Structures are given as structure tokens and as C-alpha cells.
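As noted in the main text, all predictions were made from sequence alone. Below is one such record, for Secreted protein.
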Amino acid sequence: MIKKRIPRLCTILAAAAFIFGLTLVAPPDTPTPLSPIPIASAEPMGNGYDATCTKANDNQVTCVIAGCPRVHEDLAGDSINFRINGGKQDNISKSCNNTTTVPVNASGPFTLSFQGCRGTGLFDTNECGNWSDYKYTPPANVKCNPPENFEQAEVPAGQQCVAKKMVKCPDGSPTVEALSLDKCAPVPPKQCPPGSASAEVPAGQQCAAPTNAVSMNITREGMNANVAVTNKSALPAECAYTATRTSGLLGPANVNRNVSVPANGTGNITDMLWPAPLVSYQAKVSCTATYDGKQVTIGESTQNVQG
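Prediction:
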């Protein structure tokens, strides 16, 4: 009687399941199909998974785990146990048809240890595979060359070197722009007009006409005076000579003469008498020349003459 009731009970339960929409699911005892999802640039690990960790920002790294190895007998894993630097163990879901991401709050090197396990969450089991270690080393900084051209000598990997702002070089410089004004090629000197005090001057300065370029020497030659006016400039000069009596009664009160003096040469006045005894004159000569289209004074000289 008991043996006959068992099939009938199974029939009743099956009918009830059909009527109420219930489904009885038995735990899978067959091997899970293996269909690993590869990751570009991933590193194969000893436990059959692939892993890769990449820098997300200055304070976080993203690690991606892929693959579908057997973790218990012929069964693939449903989750991952992991630790960072041997710390607290956590569990995260990882099925065969997806990858799993582990965010790590770190800016320096670390070790991600992980193993695949059967079950996850409330259905977690101790049926796990081998542990593997993924050692992460931050990518080296990028050197900015030449360093003097950039805001920083090096930047974190993945970032761009930022060039320093350039400054405009002074007008006339062969360099259009540079990192600083002292890096600009010097502006060539300014060439001065003929007869200038110097052939060239630094850029930005003005050329100058010659000054203090005239000297005078009055000597006695018999009864006459010889006035020698010397022009030390490169410009021909026109000179005005004036002698004013300062003592004595004999002779004119003023004597005026003009003399042309060549460039780098001497002009003479010889048609004047030497002062009488006890008579004195103060002589002065002033010379002008045409410089850069303008009439300018290039020098004066004075001398006292005693009779």
C-alpha cells in the first residue's frame, strides 16, 4: 500500500505545481559551459582569470577581471573573493558572460588578490579556486622636453604637457616670441647717419650729432695773429669767430670773422693784427654743421689773448 501511494503523491504534487504555476529547480550538478570574455591588454593570471588595472584618476584605479575558469571540479565561478594588499576580504558577483570591476582607492602601487567561487551573496559557498595576485604599479610620469618650455618638468601618465605662455619680443628682434624677454634675440643696433658721434647706438636709443668737436689755438706770427680752428668731427663745419676787447684802449672793440673748416681738419684766420701792448681780447669760436638734415652746433672754444 505504501509503495502505491508514493507515485500517486508525486502525481498530485506535479499537478499542483502545474495549477499554481510553481517551478521546482534543482541545483545544477552539470559543468557550467566555459565562455571567457577576453579583455584587451589584460594579464592572464595563474587561477585562469584575466585581470587589468588602469588609473582612473589621481586617487583611484579601476581593475577589471574577466574569464570563466573552473573553480570547483568542473564548475565555473559565480563570484570573486578579493583583497587589497591582504586586507579585508570582499565578495563580488562575476558570472561567465560578463566582466567584473573592482574600484581601488589608491594612488600608488598595490596588490589585488582574488579567487573565483561558486555562489554569491546568500548562496555563497566555500567552493573556491586558487588565489592569484595582480600587482599594480602606477604608470611612470611623462617627461616634458625640453622642461624649460613647459609649466611642469613632468606630468602624470595620460596627461598632456602644458607649454608655458610665450611673450612677444621687442620690435626689431629676430625672435618673434619667446618664453621670456631675456630669451629674445637682441635687437640689432641702430645705424647712425654719417657724421654722428658714434656709428651706431643700441636699439631704442637716439643717434647724436657730434659735440665738443672744436678747438682753437691763437698764436703770434710777427705782427699778425694766426687763429687755427680744428674740427674733430666727420662733418664739414662753418665757424664764426668773435674777439671782444676786455682791457686797453687801442684796437677795435670787437672783431668778427667766419671760416670754413673741413671734416677732421683745420681752418685758419690770418688777417688780424696781434693786440697792442696792454690790450687784451677774449676770443670765441662757434662751429655749426648740417647733421641728419638739420643745422646743429658741433662745438665752441674760447681763448684769452694778451698784447
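The domain at 43-136 is CATH 2.60.40.10 (Immunoglobulin-like). The first strand starts at residue 43 and ends at 44. These features were considered when defining construct boundaries for the mutagenesis experiments described in Section 2.9.
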